[in-house]
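User: Hi! I'm working on a homework problem where we have to compare a predicted structure to a textbook description. Could you give me the structure for the chain below?
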Amino acid sequence: MNIGLIAHDSKKKLMQNFCIAYRGILCQHSLYATGTTGRLIEEAANLNVYKYLAGHLGGEQQMCSQIEQNDLDLLIFFRLILVNPFSFISILLMVLQDKMKFHVISLDLL
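Assistant: Happy to help. Predicted structure tokens:
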């Protein structure tokens, strides 16, 4: 399974802890992440992660492109609920979820 991992800046430590806790499961899959998140996961959990650009430099668009092409099976997104709900990735994920073409685990955290 191809799994995408995204975490907003204040949630990166939580993502690292999540990947450490579920390393045994995640190591059986192909992991994809935006640049900084991917690097931090590799360092903390010793997992192999294909890294896109940093999110604000186009990594979110790269991840969205992979989603649109049905190359990702699951996206785990640790995000702030205060972030712009009309961002490119937020809108795409809402559309994909509504069409039930894609599984999204989005943890809305304060």
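For your comparison, note the following. The chain has a mean pLDDT of 81. The beta strands are 2-7, 30-33, 49-51, 74-80, 103-109. Good luck with the assignment!
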